[in-house]
Amino acid sequence: MKLCVIPARGGSKRIPRKNIREFCGKPMIAWSIEAAQSSGCFDQIIVSTDELAIAAVSRQWGSDVPFMRPAELADDFAGTTPVVAHAVRWYQDHGQELTAVCCLYATAPLVEPADISQGLELLAQAAADRFVFTATAYASPIQRALRLDPVSREAQMWQPEQFSKRSQDLEPAYHDAGQFYWGRPKAWLQSGNLFEGSKPLLLPRWRVQDIDTEDDWTQAELMRQALVQMDGKH
What is the pTM of this model? Predict the structure, then answer.
């Protein structure tokens, strides 16, 4: 059984009700649910939440909510891995044999079904205890990153020895795109570094956007609208 777990706790402070707030005409979480459905990868799509309102909206858009997330996994410090591990154990305790589990974020409205499918294909090449995750390149070389002195507020380079090198001669660096993570049950039940030794599915930067502030939200909506126009959808 291939399972999609969409974590969506209540109590978002920076953007209230972020998971079910309207985004380009539908609740934010609906974009993830529909992408999971369209990918054709899953035997079941569930939302792990502690909030009844989120559960109700999720069911309206076709996701199952077989349990309510326990309070100890719903505070501001709850990590993704323990939340997905809880879902894995719940299914195992109910006699279900899981072969692959995908954690798909509720705030990933730019995710494409084809990427989810490609991630599953890459999982076949990954070690049983590792993951496949979305990543993208940093826009600028991290070797030339700057910091501000906390007292003088003057600029300082993190790696001043890299100043004279051309940008094209510096090694590219990548970061988590924050869309989804494929793993086998064994991987989710282990604690540790999700990225080390795992396989990234590289995405273009124009399809990646964190949504932590109102400015992020506005930019993500503009990006989603552009994608809809590119696909000829209405």
Answer: 0.93
